[in-house]
Design a protein that fits this description.
The structure is a homodimer.
Chain A lengths: L1 H7 L4 H9 L13 E6 L2 E6 L10 H7 L13 E4 L3 E4 L4 E7 L3 H20 L15 H5 L1 E8 L16 E8 L4 E8 L2 H12 L2 E4 L4 E5 L2 E5 L5 E7 L7 H13 L4 E5 L14 H7 L9 H12 L4 E8 L19 E2 L17 E2 L5 H16 L5 E5 L5 H5 L2 H9 L6 H18 L10 E5 L9 H4 L5 E5 L8 H7 L3 E4 L2 H4 L22 H6 L2 H9 L7 E8 L9 H5 L2 H10 L10 H13 L10 H5 L8
Parallel strand pairs in A: 5-6, 6-8, 12-13, 12-21, 13-14, 14-17, 17-18, 18-19, 19-20, 20-21
Antiparallel strand pairs in A: 1-2, 3-11, 4-10, 7-8, 7-11, 9-10, 15-16
Helix pairs in contact in A: 1-2, 4-6, 7-9, 15-18
């Protein structure tokens, strides 16, 4: 506020300060706030101070212990015991006393995760402003220490996340009043479980404005493991460029919600922002500008930034559709045309949105270039356990109107039927699957494909082996039974149904006036209530726990860049996270209070998560419902 | 990018730099970009470099001179002549040679505006990064010959900011004013208090914000208000404060009973809220308590003082729930005492009496004299009641209904009211983000795309409803951003660039729809983003680089 700004510019700071206070809001009052909160029936109730003082807390401290799950997000699945006491938490007296791990590498990861945890807790402390600092806590409280011990079991050597990685953990907090010591113990099978425990721990600590200090719940026991193995977010950096700094923020927010997969849709028809050392022409011709390119070091940085936060990066290379910019150079170099239908008009005849473009799968040189692309991607994104081959929205009419491809069909004695084109496409898919290199650490990389004509009930058997591909299902579950069909055929499935988990919907069309084709904005309540088990059960009569790997929220970025990325992903991504981690039996309603708090937490940590309610609802729990 | 970050941490910067370049994207190529643009039929067309080199420019330079109005936003109304040449623009060799003005005060304002202009231009220059520095004059360009004659179509071109449903920081308000200035919008309607919170510090009534703010960090001090008013003024913007009354009142008034003044806000936190107001929390002024007027006098006097100079003041008058009063014993007794029954008309009489009282108690401005009032349309402004209750010479009416369902605007104009258009079906920018009290859609419907914001013509609305453009009575319009689902995090993206679409409608009032404006509009969004306003993206960047190829025909 301006008072403070002005004062800071003065040399005689301390002298002037008292004078300045006289004109500020607080000078006339005895307390920082006239209100306190007390926990009644698992609800923090706001009161004027002075009433029932014994049981009166500031809002954040009340929330820490009120309600069975406090302000933990996502809610633990096995056991949550939270005492109704908090104690002082001195960031300067926090130490990692023990990090037991089978290898030095895992130990180093634990140290990194601990440092990140400390940084997150520090972000909860508001900027110091002497005007709001009344109480000085006593010296006993200042002595309060926190010792953290982390034990990863002997078998937990994993340093990269796989689909079978055990992410479970046990967290205990025990405070001994007599020696001012809080002991935190974390037990996990892997680093990944242990780092989740640190996220949970960070949610047991809050800044108390009245006390002017952090508080930690004094006694806690949590036993936790995720309901689903794959909990993802799709980031599209091709429709518009997203800076590395914004990707970091996305990973910070994902980690805070125990999401474990960043699906990086890195290229598309519109742009090719990925620098490849073996093919520098791709990004030279394909990026929006030279400032909008991910260099090799950027990619490595993102992969490592994600890994220490318990997140795998799954790169997607869109093919054979959604290809165009970046391929302009091949003809001049004598390799023929590799992308066809690019900028063809009217676009609506050749693709679902401008600009159009598909690979020329009749040109044999295309495979040579793809080999180079896959090899370098496998290298810079290593270690890889999953790779997304795309396979989305192939427009058969584009190929059917491209002379080179029609001739190719004729040469091979095929007609121009839909089946011929699907044969060609599946042949392409089979080729690229085979040419994709194995990972040094993880071996053969598992493929992911979008659902498509190749995955339809009638065609899938013929074209795609369920042992090779996981299918990401993006249709609306209201209109189609795509997910059921896939599960019945034995595919592993990632749910991304557009009617609940497409977060880019609702901002209007960008090619004409009116609504976006994917419909209205998906409110957080709809995101939360979208249950993969229910969808599977409705369509197949079973939860399909083995085949249903999890889900992913999708943010196509035609109307997103650094400006609104955070607000469009968050806090709705947090609603997704609790669905996939906790998979609660209840709907959004019992989650609302914790959800608003999680939004505040993300905002405090620098993520520009959108506001979902007036702050009044945060301060007056359970009074913002329509009944 | 990471290369650059890493390198910056090294001591041997210059030595290492060359090595780093070998691994960066540009080392293998002769140009910064393989593309250039040329102007064909008022469209910048993208080409591979080397073709038609004479007429080839970088994208931004092409856009400066291609098209009748270049990248001017809002489009000038009288005359725009832009040559097809640009010359180098050296920020360091720019000077204000002459500032002729009738008074020193105006001269000082001109100097301040010039400094702001320089700052804005400087923001257009990207951060230096040696990897991308090839040309020696990689600087700004300016169009070489220009003539513009311009004046706005409407006098009142506003944005409503609601800082009560959620708090908005002073820094975020500054950004809003920066963006408004860049779009020649001239009015910030500051809906500063509401039932949910009272973030305004009043020296005469410190209890209001002590009890009514969300926290002590979420208060506008007197110096904050003065700062905003002055920041706005030098950018050509008036601030119109709104003090909501008699509805939308609650938090901040908790202290009056303890001080022996009786209850001043009623129905606060009453449940179920939907019986007593349109959204939680409920609350209305206790207009049966005479002390209420004493406090309101203090509030108005201090507001008139800290927001001075004032030419317009918004009295609120929105969404008064008669059932709240009708179920409040104190108010019902008051009616009985005065021999009135509990009919709708009695309550409207009481309300209009209240309105008349507060209008009269509002102090005159030292500079501008009697301050003109603004009110939301309401039951008091309805066709049947308005004559009885509100004098068109005293009040401007801000009309917020949907023009699809109602003929509110026509009725008001026919009665001779000056009108500010804020129809919810086009200019409520908070719609479309889902309900915040249950699952499902927001009551005000879907998101209003920029095209709908642009096409919403006050003249057309007036003409449809009254048969005339009503140029005298129709003062202009205002986009409304209720902030139940807005704070610093998403304020910019929800206001902009859609606020720019509003701005061209109100400044230029073009005869055409959004389509011919699209290319300039995308550019205006880029400009706002460059200047630090987090305006939302509306299209893939491909559409910006490939003009006129992102249409559905």
């Amino acid at each position: 506020m301006a008072d403070s700004r002005d004062v800071k510019n003065q040399i005689l700071f301390s002298l002037l300060f008292t004078a300045s206070l006289l004109h500020s809001a607080l000078s006339d009052f005895p307390f920082l706030s006239p209100y306190s909160w007390s926990c009644v029936n698992e609800t923090c109730v706001k009161n004027l101070k002075g009433w029932n003082e014994e049981d009166a807390y500031s809002l954040s401290t009340c929330k820490l212990t009120c309600g069975q799950h406090g302000v933990l997000w996502p809610k633990p699945t096995r056991l949550t015991q939270i005492s109704n006491q908090t104690v002082h938490f001195n960031l300067s007296r926090l130490s990692l006393e023990e990090a037991m791990a089978p290898t030095q590498e895992v130990k180093d990861l634990l140290q990194k995760a601990f440092d990140i945890f400390k940084g997150n807790v520090a972000k909860g402390v508001p900027e110091p402003d002497e005007r709001f600092f009344r109480k000085i806590f006593d010296s006993d409280e200042e002595k309060q220490q926190v010792f953290v011990k982390i034990r990863v079991s002997n078998t937990g050597k994993a340093t990269t996340l796989r689909l079978n990685t055990n992410e479970a953990y046990v967290l205990n907090v025990k405070t001994n009043e007599t020696n001012s010591l809080t002991n935190v113990t974390i037990d996990a099978s892997t680093f990944f479980g242990a780092r989740h425990a640190l996220e949970t721990l960070s949610q047991l600590i809050e800044y108390d404005a009245a006390k002017g200090s952090l508080q930690i719940v004094s006694q806690v026991a949590v036993v936790d493991k995720p309901a689903f193995r794959y909990r993802g977010i799709l980031l599209d950096t091709a429709s518009n460029f997203i800076s590395v700094r914004a990707i970091e923020r996305t990973l910070d927010a994902m980690a805070a919600n125990k999401l474990n997969t960043l699906h990086w849709h890195i290229t598309d028809t519109a742009s090719f922002p990925l620098y490849l050392k073996s093919l520098p022409d791709m990004s030279y011709f394909g990026s929006y500008s030279q400032r909008q390119i991910y260099n090799t070091s950027d990619v490595s940085h993102v992969v490592e930034y994600a890994r220490v936060r318990g997140i795998r990066v799954v790169p997607e290379f869109s093919a054979p559709g959604h290809v165009g910019n970046g391929w302009q150079w091949t003809e001049k170099k004598g390799l023929g045309k590799m992308a066809v239908c690019v900028k063809q008009e009217p676009w609506s005849t050749y693709c679902t949105e401008p600009p159009c473009g598909q690979l020329n799968i009749a040109n044999n040189n295309t495979y040579g270039i793809l080999t180079q692309i896959y090899e370098e991607m496998a290298d810079i994104f290593a270690p890889l356990d999953l790779f997304h081959f795309g396979g989305q929205e192939v427009n058969l009419n584009c190929w059917n109107t491209t002379e080179e491809i029609v001739s190719h069909l004729t040469e091979r004695g095929l007609n121009q039927s839909v089946d011929s084109f699907l044969d060609l496409w599946s042949e392409f898919q089979s080729n690229v699957y085979n040419m994709f290199p194995a990972d040094n650490q993880t071996g053969k990389v598992q493929g992911i494909l979008w659902n498509s004509q190749l995955t339809s009930a009638e065609k899938a058997d013929k074209y795609l082996d369920p042992r090779k591909y996981i299918i990401q299902a993006s249709g609306s579950v209201k209109d189609q039974r795509v997910i059921g069909d896939l599960l019945k055929k034995g595919y592993h499935v990632i749910l991304s149904n557009s009617d609940a988990w497409f977060l880019n919907c609702g901002f209007g069309s960008w090619v004409t006036k009116g609504q976006h084709p994917c419909g209205s904005y998906k409110g957080w309540q709809a995101v939360y209530d979208n249950s993969p088990h229910d969808v599977a059960s409705n369509e197949t009569g079973s939860y399909q726990k083995k085949l249903l790997l999890g889900g992913e929220a999708v943010l196509w970025s035609q109307q997103v860049d650094d400006a609104s990325l955070d607000a469009k992903l968050w806090p709705r991504g947090a609603a997704l996270a609790e669905r996939l981690w906790t998979n609660p039996k209840h709907n959004w309603e019992p989650a609302e209070i914790r959800f608003i708090h999680q939004r505040q937490r993300l905002f405090q940590r620098g993520v520009m998560a959108d506001r979902i309610q007036p702050e009044w609802c945060h301060q007056n729990e359970k009074l913002c419902y329509l009944r």
